[in-house]
């Protein structure tokens, strides 16, 4: 599953990096999928042992963000579910 996902994503990532460099601006790719697939993709890009991928917690609907740049990548956020939290105002 991981190999298929990375093989699918890699050409899109490379094209976005090239366009970003050429146009000197940030290019955003949005990938929507299940938490378990995101977990395996993160494990790949973090270059950790595949046996430990289950240690990365990624809930469905959570946001994870990776910044790819010319010579590498940075993990910006993982398993962010702040968009699911809201407050109900008091009716006092």
Note the run of SSEs as H and E: HHEE
Strand adjacency order, main sheet = 1-2
Give unreliable regions as ranges: none
**Helix content percent band:** 25-40%
The general outline is globular
SS-derived structural category: alpha+beta
Measured between the Cα atoms of the first and last residue, the distance is 52 Å
**Biggest pleated sheet:** 2 strands, antiparallel
Overall pLDDT: 88
Q: What would you report as the Rg, rounded to the nearest angstrom?
A: 16 Å
Q: Count of DSSP helices? A: 2
The number of E-state strands comes to 2
- Beta-strand fraction estimate: 15-25%
Distinctive features:
92 residues; alpha+beta; two-stranded antiparallel sheet
Question: How would you characterize this protein structure?
Answer:
With 92 residues, this protein is α+β, with helices and mostly antiparallel strands. Helix content is 37%, strand content 17%. The protein has two helices and two strands. It has a two-stranded antiparallel sheet. The longest helix has 22 residues, at 2-23. The protein is globular and about 55 Å long. The chain starts with a helix and ends in a 12-residue tail after the last strand. The mean pLDDT is 88.
């Amino acid at each position: 599953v991981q190999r298929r996902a990375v093989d699918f994503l890699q050409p899109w990532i490379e094209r976005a990096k090239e366009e970003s460099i050429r146009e000197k601006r940030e290019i955003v790719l949005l990938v929507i999928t299940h938490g378990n697939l995101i977990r395996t993709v993160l494990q790949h890009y973090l270059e950790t042992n595949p046996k430990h991928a289950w240690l990365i917690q990624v809930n469905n609907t959570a946001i994870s963000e990776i910044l790819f740049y010319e010579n590498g990548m940075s993990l910006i956020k993982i398993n962010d579910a702040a968009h699911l939290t809201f407050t109900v105002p008091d009716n006092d």
